[in-house]
TrEMBL record:
Residues 141-221 form the TonB-dependent receptor plug domain. Residues 390-801 form the Outer membrane protein beta-barrel domain. It is found in: Cell outer membrane. This is Outer membrane receptor proteins, mostly Fe transport. It holds the Pfam family CarbopepD_reg_2. Its main location: membrane. It comes from Mariniphaga anaerophila.
Length: 803
């Protein structure tokens, strides 16, 4: 009966004092002399001289207490006839699961009926290791894709080729639900433009990942997390968006070419279904996109200093596209210790591109050449994953084993017609590329009294077979000396160890990742430029350290050190040219090597009642930088600029980031970010192999730029929300040139209907159509000026219903 009243008193107090949190405390109470368990011993968690929660041990002396908020506590263990024991405990953000192990109580002749508490509560949440963003609150880009939603994130920019840049670098690892995926391309992120933002719950940014994560990604990790319902029973969500893009025109077309698409329609239906019981959770998400868009509208002016006639051209590409993606899977809760998860993600995309590229002489306006094409391309992405998790008796003590198979395929038929003074003929290329990756991983976590230990291993096998067929016409410009196949193989074997320690004033995380990488690139012997296969291995250590000092409850200071690697993506390695613009020819480099980065960062965050400010300064040193260079060539009777990726030696990157959030009034919240960074590439000389050996040299290149993002969120009457977003990118220096500044203004409205079951949304991205990209490239004997007015302006109306 005494045990019953003790437990009843604990439950009443815990309900009155604190809301349920995420902390879990476990242990086993035993006799210090006999080592026998003490069943029905009382275990209490106390703070600020108040009883927070508690329990009694089971017949084996074990106990588990969950739902404890972050804070500074005293855990007290007592039993009739024994001296009680008090254990100070800090539950923080880095570690919320604690195994106190064996707690020994010494026999006593006195009964201890009271517990003396002297601890003070302290909320611990540094928020410096990871930034998380709720996509549903991003009203301005609510009707767009994941790429649209990412435009608004601190430190993130999106270029005209749909590449994601983080803190000024495109060397970023983009994950889906914490895993690599063919959808993000293992080197490019074009698949993200086909994922509606409505399918995503949140996006996380991790600038300094721990050793648990793959070492890939100089700038860090962006993790895109799909929605997943946690409520029991059957529920779902259905939605439909309709949009119009390219509502205005920035610059008139050159004479005698096709019309640029305008008022381009976009249709996006979606549905999400979920059924959850105590034993299983089944889920299905599906989205479709049917749309037209102006994929590119680039005006280029080439001026030469060697007497070659100057040329102006327009690269106009209209796209018609249809796409769907499906995610389906289930969680099987086999028992309270074991869970099996299986899921599959499919995406199929088909588009038709129609392109016109006129080339006119700048001096007299006469047509030099007229290039047209009709590209039919189908891309498919498939992910299969299985994950098994076993929980040991102590909360937080667990082991996971997983397998992931991912395949991305591209099938591109590219017929093009060249009309010029020297030829009038049609050529065709047929490219098939698969990127096939298999991953096996095992991860083990052991909670400690003041932290945890993480151990794991991973094997990743990556294969990229390429088939390249040509059908040359009369006086063809196609290069017949490239062969018609290549195959890239990359095997990575990794081990890691990570340790987290958390105390009242200091948090420490340190780890080491070991990766052994083997690369083999087989090239068709018919290729006369790359005459030897590439075959190499390298063993690398990737340390990481994070130290956080908690100045007080609202102020924290962190220091980070880590090492990362960036391996070339498929498009950067592909040895076959892309002929969408025959006078600015893009080719990959199968001899490209990875680049390595060491990062040092100092960050500070302060919180107050209505907001917070995050400040960060970072410095990176980079070896074997790879980037595209521009060289002048003449191999087909025409003057051509070749652009090809090369390793460019050493460089560095210095930057400063600020992010703030402040609730100005009860209905007005403002948040924003500012990023400044400076890049330096040391002087470097090398030789480009394709289309002929050509030396190149760069003097030391220094640059600095910045960008600013500002969001105003208003809660209006009648259950209506409004968001206005301004984005500004300052001019930026790039290898061999610079990018001019650009600006975008986005606005969105969201109205809640039917007691929260439905939402009506209206959004406008780049409302004033000002987000085009202009660049200046300086090469040997030439200057290239480009202005790309690709489609950035889109207005979307959407509705969503929950059931």
């Amino acid at each position: 009966m005494k045990h019953f009243f003790s437990l009843l008193f604990i439950c009443i107090c815990s309900i009155q004092v604190f809301a349920k949190g995420e902390g879990v405390i476990s242990g086993r109470v035993i006799d210090s002399v006999t080592k026998e368990p003490l069943p029905y011993a009382t275990v209490t968690v106390n703070s600020e001289e108040q009883l927070v929660t508690g329990t009694v041990t089971n017949v084996d002396g074990r106990f588990t207490i969950d739902g404890v908020n972050e804070g500074n506590y005293t855990v007290s263990c007592s039993f009739v006839g024994y001296n009680s024991k008090e254990i100070p405990l800090l539950i923080g953000r880095l570690n919320t699961i604690f195994d106190l192990g064996r707690i020994t109580l010494e026999p006593s002749s006195e009964n201890i009926d009271e517990v003396i508490v002297s601890a003070k509560k302290e909320i611990v949440s540094s928020g410096l290791d990871k930034k998380s963003f709720d996509v549903a609150k991003n009203v301005s880009q609510s009707g767009g894709s994941v790429l649209d939603a990412m435009r608004n994130l601190p430190g993130v920019t999106i270029d005209q080729e749909s590449k994601v840049l983080l803190r000024g670098s495109d060397k970023v690892s983009v994950l889906i639900d914490g895993k690599q995926s063919s959808l993000t391309g293992f080197g490019n992120q074009k698949g993200l433009d086909n994922i509606p933002a409505s399918s995503i719950e949140k996006i996380e940014i991790i600038n300094n990942p721990s050793a648990k994560y793959d070492a890939r990604g100089m700038a860090g990790i962006i993790n895109i997390i799909y929605k997943k319902e946690k409520e029991t029973g059957f529920n779902g969500e259905a939605g439909f968006n309709f949009g119009l893009g390219e509502l205005s025109q920035r610059k008139s077309n050159l004479p005698n070419i096709m019309d640029k698409y305008s008022f381009t329609p976009k249709y996006n239906p979606s549905i999400s279904l979920n059924y959850r019981t105590e034993k299983a959770n089944l889920f299905l998400q599906s989205d479709g996109i049917v749309r037209s868009k102006v994929n590119s509208n680039e005006f280029s002016t080439r001026k030469y200093s060697d007497g070659t006639p100057d040329v102006i051209s327009q690269f106009l590409e209209n796209r018609t596209q249809q796409e769907y993606n499906i995610k389906v899977g289930f969680d099987w809760f086999m028992n309270d210790k074991n869970t099996l998860t299986l899921f599959a993600l499919f995406e199929d995309e088909y588009h038709i591109d129609r392109g016109h590229v006129p080339y006119d002489y700048l001096t007299n306006g006469k047509r030099k050449r007229f290039w047209t094409w009709a590209e039919d391309e189908n891309t498919r992405f498939i992910n299969y994953a299985a994950n098994f998790k076993h929980k040991f008796a102590e909360p937080g003590h667990e082991i996971e084993a997983g397998y992931l198979y991912t395949k991305g395929g591209e099938d591109e038929l590219f017929p093009f017609t060249d009309s010029s003074a020297v030829r009038n003929s049609t050529d065709e290329t047929h490219l098939k590329v698969d990127e096939i990756v298999s991953n096996w991983n095992v991860d083990y976590v052991k909670p400690l009294r003041s932290g945890r230990v993480e151990l794991g291993t991973k094997v990743q096998l990556r294969r990229i077979p390429i088939s390249y067929k040509i059908n040359p016409g009369e006086n063809s410009i196609l290069d017949p000396n490239l062969g018609d196949w290549s195959e890239y193989n990359e095997n990575i074997y990794a081990l890691y160890c990570n340790y987290v320690f958390e105390s009242k004033k200091v948090d420490i995380e340190g780890g080491m990742r070991l990766e052994n990488t083997g690369v083999k690139y087989d090239i068709d012997p018919e290729n006369i430029y790359y005459t030897t296969n590439d075959d190499y291995n390298y063993l690398s250590l990737f340390p990481n350290v994070r130290v956080t000092y908690k100045i007080n409850v609202g102020n924290k200071l962190s220091a980070f050190v880590n090492r990362r690697v960036d391996r070339p993506g498929e498009f950067e390695l592909r040895p076959f040219p892309k002929y969408d613009d025959p006078e600015i020819l893009k080719t990959g480099n199968p001899y490209l090597r990875p680049q390595f980065t060491n990062t040092f960062e100092l960050a500070y965050k302060t919180n107050w009642t209505n907001g917070s400010v995050y400040l960060s300064g970072f410095y990176r040193t980079i070896t074997d930088i790879f980037s595209r260079i521009y060289t002048n060539g003449n191999t087909t009777g025409e003057t051509i600029i070749n652009t090809i990726p090369q390793n460019l030696g050493k460089g560095s990157n210095l930057g400063f980031e600020l992010a703030f959030d402040h609730k100005i009034t009860s209905f007005w919240n403002m948040n924003g970010s500012f990023l400044w960074y400076a890049n330096q590439i040391n002087a470097f000389s090398g030789t480009s192999i394709y289309p002929q050996p050509q030396p190149f040299h760069f003097e030391e290149n220094k640059s600095n730029t910045w960008n600013l993002k500002l969001n105003n969120n208003l809660e209006l009457p009648w259950n209506t929300e409004m968001q206005a977003t301004a984005i500004y990118y300052a001019p930026d220096i790039i290898p061999q040139g610079k990018t001019e500044d650009r600006f975008s203004f986005d606005v969105g409205l969201k109205k809640i209907l039917m007691n929260g079951k439905a939402e009506l949304m209206l959004s406008a991205v780049d409302l004033f159509n000002t987000f085009g990209i202009s660049q200046v490239i300086e090469g040997e004997n030439f200057t290239l000026n480009t202005e790309n007015y690709y489609e950035t302006q889109v207005i979307t109306l959407g509705i969503k219903y929950k059931f």
